[in-house]
Design goal:
It is a single chain. The protein has 2 domains: 398 residues, Rossmann fold (3-Layer(aba) Sandwich); 121 residues, ANL, C-terminal domain (GMP Synthetase, Chain A, domain 3, 2-Layer Sandwich). The chain is an alpha/beta fold. The termini are far apart. The radius of gyration is 24 Å and the shape is globular. It has a 7-stranded mixed sheet, sandwiched between helices. A 5-stranded parallel sheet has the order 7-6-8-11-12, sandwiched between helices. A hairpin with a 4-residue loop joins strand 9 and strand 10.
Length: 625
Amino acid sequence: MNYQSCYEQSLAQPAAFWAEQARQVAWYRAPTQILTPLADGTHEWFADGCLNTSYLALDHQIEQGRGEQTALAYDSPVSGSQQRFSFRQLRDEVARLAGWMRSLGVEKGDRVILYLPMIPQAAMAMLACARLGAVHSVVFGGFAANELAVRIDDAQPALILTASCGLEFDRVVPYKPLLDKALELARHKPAHVGVWQRPKLAASLVPGRDLDWQREVADAQPVAPVELASGDPLYIMYTSGTTGRPKGIVRDNGGHAVAMRFALEQVYGMQAGDVWWGISDVGWVVGHSLIVYGPLMAGCTSVMYEGKPVRTPDAGTYWRIVEQYRVNALFCAPTAMRAIRKEDPDGVLLCRHDLSSLRCLYLAGEKLDSSTHAWLQDMTGKPVHDHWWQTETGWPVTAPCARLEGSGARAGSSNRAVPGYAVRVMDEEGRPQGAGQQGDIVIGLPLPPGCCQTLWRDHERYLQAYLRTYPGYYQTGDGGYLDDDGFVYIMGRTDDVINVAGHRLSTGEMEDLVAAHPAVAECAVFGVHDEIKGQVPLALVVVKDDARIQAAQLQSELVAQVREHIGALACLRRVEVVKRLPKTRSGKILRAVLRKIADHEVFAPPSTLDDPAILDEIAQVLDVH
């Protein structure tokens, strides 16, 4: 298909366009009501369709002759374990797990919380919930007890599935004590907790409540998929960094299935039999869309990895995976590639591996700086594409579409809008902005299938947070601009736009310039309070291991570089060298937290913070104890 005609049709005739895409899905009952507008400004896709996501990911693939093809390839350097599951084996494991869950009273509409590490049982548990029509909510294994308790009270699960521990390259993380503490704190008390015992550490079980997962499932009777309405919820995804009552993004079954097929095939260029590697965690939306559901529903082999980009055992581990499993395309966050570049800047470890199977690399989750983009493309010799999406959308908003002729790609941009997404830029007064003019990035309604249409138990909050600021549009919370050719440039969250003496400046643009310095491994630029100018930018940089430069010289060069490209009005004068930056478990740098530390503001460490000790290190550097 041609990109331009496909994109134009998707906006001019959304019902017809998505009706055609829905024909790629094996419905139990194909929908006739394609797009139904609702009075509150939201809408419903495929309202009268019936299907089951677990059936589409497993049973349907077996019916298509892929029963013996590897569905899930599990690689865990932290445990020294590797496993492969064919579609038939995975279906049988999932069907028995679902049978055990049903024997415990779990039925359609019930919620199940999954508190699990990156092991095959996490994917099996998700698919087993989908098989029953139970609504799963994955919470990161190792999440703080009080944050887990809040999610337990919000979702009110009938069952919690966990593992005895998680594994890092240098430590074992006991999960069960954290879960026990969370259940003490929570008002809601689920009847049962299933525990997968890992060899590294066994967990003690509470009599009458806790059950040994391995032992119980061994004798369980398999069950068939339950027929579900398109609009029935598949999962709840709690967004990172929330305070108070958590914000639970709800994903439906029907729209999600259509969107996943379209994304894997048209955006990422995958087809049945290909090997896909989504490098993430099932606790994030990427883990749902690009480790479990998307690849399997497209008939692909999905690689599931338990480890880090470095130190498990070294910065060549990603390339070993690509070679060993003959990966055709992969997804990861820029921060992972920056970590690899920091430890292997000349690609010595990369060059030891055969990457001939790899067709393309896709990066998202935060801004892909130009230097990392160029390094990765030069080292691999493969196309490297930035693209952009959100937990709320569940699949790419902007990306080069591999199967759409003329889609194109442009370095520095997150690329053009994917068909279905009417991406626009507005100023603070809701006026459309022209090419090159920065503002709030919004998406015209209706949103395409697969996008969130409500929050769990709080629809009013959804309307307020996303639809009311710009009537007729979904507010993304990101700022940026479009160029003359429709390529989208994401400059960061709108709260990353700072006002320096009346000039609205993007810290994302400054960050890109700082990151381009050959001595900088990664960085964060954010606005801090200034008595005279209102705000001024502050840069924190992590220096490459092999860099030979004094901090004062680096500061001078970075200040000069930003001044040259943006001008003196940027007012970047302060650059601090730090050992590391605070990040979420998915690798996103916590710029809002950094801003509060620098401004002496009180803050609560986010529940998704990867290593809390880092905040004290940053505070010492900034001299704010």
